Amino acid sequence: VPPEGESPVLQAVQSLPEKYRRAIYLRYYEEYTVEEIAGVMGCRPSQVSTYLYRGKAKLRTALGGSYERACLSE
Predict the structure, then answer these.
(1) Does residue 5 belong to any structural domain of this protein?
(2) What CDD domains is this protein classified in (predicted)?
């Protein structure tokens, strides 16, 4: 059970490896473009896209059905 006030989605994001967590945070919480994230992280935009894809896949696995419900509620 997540601490009070902390959503299961946020808890799952925080459990991701650093590179995935950072890319997802910048993209979906700070609304950076892939190119902007690449500049911040010091990598190619294609690598950022890979981090986002793999990070979201890990979230889907960790959250199961909660992932789809969380995405639909946003």
Answers:
(1) no
(2) Sigma70_r4
Asked if residue 28 belongs to a domain, the reply is yes
Mean pLDDT, the chain cut into blocks of 10 residues (74 residues total)? 67 94 96 98 98 95 72 54
Contacts of 74 (CB under 8 A, 6+ apart): none
Assigned token pair, 66 = 């909660």
Domain that holds residue 37: 17-73
Closest by Cα among 45, 60, 65, 52 to 19: 52
pLDDT at 4 (0 to 100): 59
Number of separate domains in the chain = 1
pLDDT score for 21: 97
Q: Report the C-alpha gap between 53 and 49 in whole angstroms.
A: 6
Of 20, 22, 28, 32, which is closest to residue 58 (Cα–Cα)?
A: 20
